Amino acid sequence: MMGLSEWSGPPLQVIGMGIEAGALSPATRKALDQAELLIGSGAHLATFPEVTAEKIPYPSPMSGLRNLLLQHAGRRIALLASGDALFYGIGSTLLRYFSSEHLIFHPNVSSVQAAFARLGRPWQQAQMVSLHGRPRASLRAVLHSNRLYALLTDRENSPVAIAELLVDAGFGESNLWIAENLGMPDEQFRHFQAHDLAGMEIEFSPLNVVILETCGPGGVLPEFPGLPDERFSTGAEPGKGLLSKREVRLTILSLLAPRAGDIGWDVGAGCGGVSVEWARWNPHGEVYAVECHAERLEHLGINRERFGVVNNLHIVPGVAPEALTALPDPRAAFIGGSSGHLRAMLEAVWARLPPGGRLVASAVTEDSRVDLHAFVGDQAADWTELSIARGERLAGQRVMRPYLPVLLMKMEKAR
């Protein structure tokens, strides 16, 4: 962020352009008329032919904006934005460069607000999801039944592509309202059901907002912790393979107690049972999954995409502890697979945890149990052993098939 002494000019005026051209408050109009330099998109600049200020389009790439502003420091500058600059807009970029004391925001009606007005529905319950420049699979991470969403799109994440994802996720009966070119002479507002729109040959304006109301059986993407084992790709038959079982995963996550903003490590992530579930239920944290086996990495990538955790689950190919060197320090870490090097991994991870950091490790073999007890020694730790059995059929009868017991250890670093 730029220091106070680095910006000597008047505060930057950030003017939101509403859906209707010219719908500006008196204070906003005054800031516009007093500007000596006007920066905006070509379309926005063309809206004010009467303004005598020098007009400059936004640089491409936008990373050049800081230098552009510094070149004109001392002048009265106004920047034009769409709707509300602090809602998925240029406000976030400006706040990376300047203190809030140097910025005055003039919000206007956003495209999402206008779209809901066209629909005539309250939108305080709607969840906002930006797919603009983001992977479409990230929508999978937030889809739930009978919910209302506002989706910001781009050319890759078009309404048709979104409808196809909804059908694949079991929400083919969902309603989609597409608002195009809001406030313009060629404005359109159309309704579709996902199963009708998917695969349709239809063009939409790039300037569109999608309102989504999920309907249908869903169920492909669970809405509550405890992802079914059989939903994971492991290379083996469904529910089998190198994957922490659901009951074990839930206990691990409860011990890790992830919080918003936490950086987490899953060391020896295997096919991603723990890391995928961790990232899905803690969307405001970052999870780094470290794995060295090529086949497991392949399935880890498949599961990352399948459950939509593409924004906050980072796959790190490599052997721990060496692969941990370049990672940011974790607030919570889990060691699941160690390939016989559990003691070295425990020491390396513990050294990187800050005060208050949480370490959870599992052991199944006798050798790993010995390493776990030796590492803890006389230190305070929580110990849990899970013995799980699941019902199967044998000769026409129900039997409880036991799995190998799993020993879990949790330590928290003294503050």
Low-confidence stretches: 1-5
Task: Characterize the quaternary organization of these chains.
Answer: single chain
CATH architecture of the largest domain: 3-Layer(aba) Sandwich
CATH level-4 homologous superfamily of the largest domain: Vaccinia Virus protein VP39
Indicate the radius of gyration in whole angstroms: 26 Å
Please give the alpha-carbon distance between the first and last residues.
Answer: 30 Å
Main β-sheet: number of strands, strand sense, barrel status?
7 strands, mixed
Domain count: the total is: 3
The largest sheet has its strands arranged as 13-12-11-14-15-19-16
Mean residue pLDDT: 92
What share of residues is helical? 25-40%
Summarize the structure.
The chain has 415 residues and is of the alpha/beta class. It has helices at 26-34, 42-46, 65-71, 90-97, 111-119, 159-168, 194-197, 246-256, 273-281, 294-306, 342-352, 366-376, and strands spanning 12-17, 37-40, 54-57, 77-82, 103-106, 127-130, 148-152, 175-180, 188-193, 208-213, 263-267, 286-291, 313-317, 332-335, 358-363, 382-386, 389-394, 397-402, 406-412. The protein folds into three domains: 4-109, Tetrapyrrole methylase, N-terminal domain (Cobalt-precorrin-4 Transmethylase, domain 1), CATH 3.40.1010; 113-213, 2-Layer Sandwich (Methyltransferase, Cobalt-precorrin-4 Transmethylase, Domain 2); 229-412, Vaccinia Virus protein VP39 (Rossmann fold, 3-Layer(aba) Sandwich), CATH 3.40.50.150.
